């Protein structure tokens, strides 16, 4: 026989309150509905369960036995509800973040500091994730927010994921500090890749989107780069440039100012990568995750402002004609 927990709970309430009417009130049902449920229970169990009298209702021995188990059902239900509430409260304060090195160094710390000030009881964890795996970790439910990068192409679309744009991270040229292009021109001079066609290069490993973007940019500039060193790390690339052996394209966010190196901006249109915060699209996104994304955007705006400030100052200086009249502003496509 299949046991109906609702019948067990009903009998426990009748025993506790001593009447069908009071049990009906506790269940927010009509007395007639409770009477029908009792009748059904007696048919199902094939035994009398309730004795009705002028002063209320009492249970038969069979009814009392089932009521005992009904109290156990009630206790288990109350405990489950309390534990679920505690779990949901914990989940609303839990934030699992995946990120890659440059974002972990520059984007995430200010955002997490602000988040901690607002929610000191937040349960935050951070794990290094290869950028290409971040979306997969979100889909699998192992992360709540993943900071990822895309080189020149939008992220693959998914109906279950949402990409929140954070930062446009331009590529810059890292040169040995005694390189002619580093010593013979002002520091704010923008270089064209054509000027570097005869150089030896440090590049990200073949097969990576950054490597493909680099070769595409070189092809558009009319040359095939001579790659002497390959690495998976922008840090290693800059250290190798510091030996004087090669030059490299490195993301602006990943600049380390390694000893023996300097960097120059590229002329526009310059290669870049787009940074995103990836989340699920379903309502499981917590307010804490929403807040983190807003804070990451604030940090990204501040970083972009520090990058653009020297360029804006130079543009303001060059916008003056010899006679003091201002030239029309130049609108740049990626600003």
Automatic annotation (TrEMBL):
Keywords: DNA-binding, Transcription, Transcription regulation. The keyword Transcription applies. The keyword Magnesium does not apply. GO terms for cellular component: protein-DNA complex. Signal peptide: none annotated. GO terms for molecular function: DNA binding; DNA-binding transcription factor activity. Residues 3-60 form the HTH lysR-type domain. PROSITE patterns: HTH_LYSR. Residues 314-326 have a biased composition (Basic and acidic residues). Residues 307-335 are annotated as: Disordered. Belongs to the LysR transcriptional regulatory family. PANTHER family: LYSR SUBSTRATE-BINDING, TRANSCRIPTIONAL DUAL REGULATOR HCAR-RELATED. This is LysR family transcriptional regulator. It comes from Streptomyces brasiliensis.
């Amino acid at each position: 026989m299949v046991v109906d927990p609702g019948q067990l709970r009903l009998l426990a309430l009748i025993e506790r309150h001593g009447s069908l009417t009071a049990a009906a009130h506790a269940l927010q049902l009509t007395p007639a509905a409770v009477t029908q449920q009792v009748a059904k229970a007696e048919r199902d169990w094939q035994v009398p369960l309730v004795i009705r009298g002028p002063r209320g209702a009492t249970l038969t021995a069979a009814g009392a036995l089932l009521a005992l188990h009904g109290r156990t059902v009630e206790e288990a239900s109350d405990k489950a509800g309390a534990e679920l509430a505690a779990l949901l409260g914990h989940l609303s304060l839990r934030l699992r973040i995946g990120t890659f090195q440059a974002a972990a160094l520059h984007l995430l710390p200010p955002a997490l500091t602000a988040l901690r000030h607002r929610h000191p009881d937040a349960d935050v964890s951070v794990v290094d994730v290869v950028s290409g795996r971040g979306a997969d970790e979100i889909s699998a439910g192992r992360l709540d927010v993943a900071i990822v990068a895309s080189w020149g192409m939008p992220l693959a679309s998914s109906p279950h994921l949402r990409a929140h744009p954070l930062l446009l991270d331009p590529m810059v040229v890292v040169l040995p500090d005694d390189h002619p292009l580093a010593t013979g021109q002002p520091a704010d001079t923008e270089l064209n890749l054509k000027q570097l066609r005869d150089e030896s290069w440090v590049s990200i490993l073949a097969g990576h989107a950054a490597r493909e973007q680099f070769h595409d940019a070189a092809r558009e500039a009319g040359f095939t780069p001579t790659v002497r060193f390959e690495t998976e790390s922008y840090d290693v690339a800059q250290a190798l440039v510091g030996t004087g052996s090669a030059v490299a394209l490195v993301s602006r966010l990943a600049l380390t100012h390694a000893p023996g190196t300097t960097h120059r901006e590229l002329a526009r249109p310059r290669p870049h990568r787009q940074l995103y915060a990836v989340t699920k699209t379903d309502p499981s996104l917590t307010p804490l995750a929403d807040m983190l994304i807003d804070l990451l955007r604030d940090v990204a705006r501040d970083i972009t402002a520090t990058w653009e400030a020297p360029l804006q100052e130079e543009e303001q200086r060059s916008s003056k004609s010899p006679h003091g009249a201002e030239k029309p502003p130049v609108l740049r496509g990626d600003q």
